Structures are given as structure tokens and as C-alpha cells.
Amino acid sequence: MERTLLIVKPDGVARGLVGEILTRLENKGVFIVGLRMLRLDEAAARAMYAVHEGRDFYEPLIRYITGGPLVAVIAEGKSVISIVRSLAGPTFGSAAPPGTIRGDLAVSNRYNIVHASDSSESYEREWPIFFDEGGIVELDDARLKWIYDTSTSEII
Ligand code: CMP
To answer: DSSP character for 97?
Structure first.
């Protein structure tokens, strides 16, 4: 099992799209094991997007992500990092295909509704910016066994 971080960014919260986005995760069969609404302060925003420091979109990005409350989600499942990235769609709302969160809900290249960790290294760096250990629940078998075949030694 793997975990990933998805953020419903301030534009997604302000537009009332939190339920829609959580529904897409749940409908797919991805487990939500952490959920928190917060407003990111500037230091945390700079830490979150440190890899983009110096890019022309960095300062506007900091203003965007600190501009209102966001909802942070930890999702769990097999291959959940790539699954949630494909549910989110390509970065730019203008280019994301229909059927994806960004393709269906965003037109802007900056105000693109969601962030999703792009690797396990990114997830490990990003999740503590939003959660502490106690904010994540353990996944129980009763939920697991109707999403995957757990009857053999391998979860399929
Ligand atoms: P995200 O996937 O969270 O990662 C970095 C964010 O910066 C990205 O979503 C967009 O919100 C924003 N971003 C990335 N590239 C650009 C760009 N060229 N112009 C405007 N905003 C961008």
C-alpha cells in the first residue's frame, strides 16, 4: 500500500468543489485516511514549493496557495500516487483532457484546483507540511476487502 497527498487548493475550496473532488477519489476506490482544512502560512508555502523557487511563477504561486483556506487529503491504495495524478490530469487546466479533475473543472494554468504528489519522495517531503502523525488513520480490512481481492497472499 502507498500513500499520496492531494490538496484542494484555495480556488477549489472557494468554488465549492471539495465534495466533487473527494467524491472522485472515493468513487475510484482510493481510501481517504487523512483530511484537514487549513490556511497555509507563507513559510509553509515556500517550503512546499521550494523546488520552484526562482521560476517566474513562484511568487504568484505563493500568493495563490496562501490566499485562502485549502483542504489537504491523504489517500491510500495500491499505486495511489500515479492513480491520483491521473485523476488530477496534466498541470494546465487549459490542456487537461475531459474526465480529469483539471480537465473538467479548471481553465487556468495557475488556478488548477488541485495538487498531487508526483513521487514517493515528494509525498514524504510534503505530507508533514499539512499533517502530523496523529492526523492519519489506519486503513481497516473491512474497507479494503471490497476494493481489492485480499483472499490470496497478494492484494490484487
Ligand atoms: P502544482 O501541480 O501544484 O505545482 C506547481 C504549481 O505552480 C502548479 O500546480 C500551478 O498551480 C503553478 N504553475 C506551474 N507552472 C506554471 C506556469 N507556467 N504558469 C503559472 N502557474 C504555474
So the answer is: P
